[in-house]
Amino acid sequence: MLDLEVIPERSLGCPEKSWEFILGMHFSQAVAIIQSQVGTIKNVQVLYSDQNLLNVDLIINIPLSGMRLIFDPISQRLKAIEIFNMKLVRLRYCGNYFNSPEILPSIEQIENSFGSTHPAVYDAVKNSFALNFRGLTFYFFVDSKTQPNQANHGLSSLHFGPGNSPIVTRMTLYCGNSFHECKAPALPISCYNKQLYVESATVIRNSSGTKGLRLNIFTEGSVRSLEARKQCFTRDVLFGDTCQDVVTNLGAPSRVFYKSEDKMKIHSPSAHKRVQRKSDFFFNYFTLGIDILFDARTQKAKKFILHTNFPGHYNFNIYHRCEFKIELNPDKTEQLNGNPINVTAYSKWDAISAKFPSESPIVLHRSSSTNCSNIFGSTFCYGYQDIIFEVMNNGHIASVTFYNTSSQNVFSNWAGIGNQQQINKHNEFEIKIN
Known about the structure:
Elements: E1 2-7, E2 11-14, E3 19-22, H1 27-36, E4 44-48, E5 58-62, E6 67-71, E7 78-83, E8 89-93, E9 96-99, H2 107-114, E10 121-123, E11 128-133, E12 136-141, E13 146-148, E14 158-160, E15 168-174, E16 197-206, E17 209-220, E18 230-238, H3 243-250, E19 255-258, E20 281-285, E21 290-294, E22 301-307, E23 324-328, E24 341-344, H4 349-353, E25 362-364, E26 379-384, E27 387-391, E28 397-403, E29 429-433
Parallel strand pairs: 1-8, 4-29, 16-23
Antiparallel strand pairs: 1-2, 2-3, 4-5, 5-6, 6-7, 7-15, 8-9, 10-11, 11-12, 12-15, 13-14, 16-17, 17-18, 19-20, 20-21, 21-22, 22-28, 23-24, 25-26, 26-27, 27-28
């Protein structure tokens, strides 16, 4: 049974073991905590809507601990924590228990632990009432022995006889005054972990194609005072930049991955030639949602891959979402009015492809290095100018690849889309699709 400390409007966690679920933390950070507590937190489920990814909350369900972590579907940051079975967890506030096998969370116990608050809100339809504190709500079930008293307004506005005090059935923790109006807060500085995060990414393009990326980045500033502060800056990463240029602008990558095999070389005119050469390599920036491919010979950047991190994709939870914006300028032969097309991480392929012609896609199927099947199925890769769009079955864009046409054969650019290091993050989770 988990033994957790409640901090309204902030977190729920176990200070003795130095972990806590903090409101505003990214989905991947919560998963990392769960994986670190693999012997304690078990039977984890990821719940999402496959056809309505941007409007339905992303949820980590932990039924054996009676807990749900609710994430905003767009920012993918933690916006609320729900305890739906109070009997499966111990809870304390300021070091004092208010819920455990020995202590029932009655309305008197909640009042003694948290103090006075506004009158309870009675719901006659659900036959329940809610007791609201800032950042915290307790829900009670009203049975035949507990009747609302219309004459009083306060904690005692519900009248109950001796031994019939209502017990908390559910608790929610969030930021703000109301659970129904709560939003995921900004990523707390305590969750920065000395990493870089992208606020927005603009693709730099002109009439001849893509030149590079302009990244608006934030991170933890230098600690010259007692309080760490957010620091923002802008960096450009361009085709032809060397490894040293990229590291100077973005810092060391999360990982470096060397390509071992190019399975798309069969499309090249010289595919039959066995040429021994060094391996191209990727800089993986997981918290930026970006991969950068470097040429093995020149060690200069020749490909950028931007990830959207949608649930239902093979690489989900490896990257943070890259908040990119692309402005495409179709040729007049493709579109008579020549109006630019704006593409973001939330655009759907049907809306994009309707504005310019596209050829039949290449089907991309990934499989785990442990010979496990890919439960999410194949994705489809569409080429346009110097861009490759990887599209999921539900029409959402999984990744966008930009390649330098001046240095590569077009066929070789279909290889290496997505996470270049085949890491299956789902093997400890049960995935449920609504």
